[in-house]
Amino acid sequence: MFSDIYKIWEIASRHAWGWRGKLVSGTDNTDDSFTGGSASAERPEVESTQHTAATGVDIVTKHHLQETSSTKEAYKNYIKDVINQRQT
Q1: Contact at 8 Å (CB) between 32 and 25?
Q2: How far does the signal peptide extend, from start to end residue (predicted)?
């Protein structure tokens, strides 16, 4: 997430960072010519092109970030463990 492509600034006395992203949408078109393959002679009617569409904030899509799922209680326990490890 920290890249020189995006402007990042500090917030609240160096305890947090801020950045501004844009909502983007794009497609990733892949076919056999990209990988050096050719269409099969046995099934020439099959379309071998794969289309993947992605819409989201550019920072998230460029860095392939994924949403995590945890409960508030699990997150609290994780933070407590991290703090305890740093203190020892």
Answers
A1: no
A2: none
Indicate the helix (H) or strand (E) that contains 52: strand 50-57
Paired with 55 in beta bridges are 25
Rounded-to-integer distance, Cα 75 and Cα 83, Å: 12
Find the helix or strand (DSSP H, E) in which 16 lies.
Answer: strand 16-19
Give 57-71 pLDDT, tens digit per residue.
Answer: 888 888 888 888 889
Q: How many CB atoms lie within 10 A of CB 7?
A: 8
Residue where the block lists tokens 């056999």: 32
Overall residue count recorded for the chain in this entry: 88
What is the rounded distance in angstroms from the CA atom of residue 48 to the CA atom of residue 36? 13
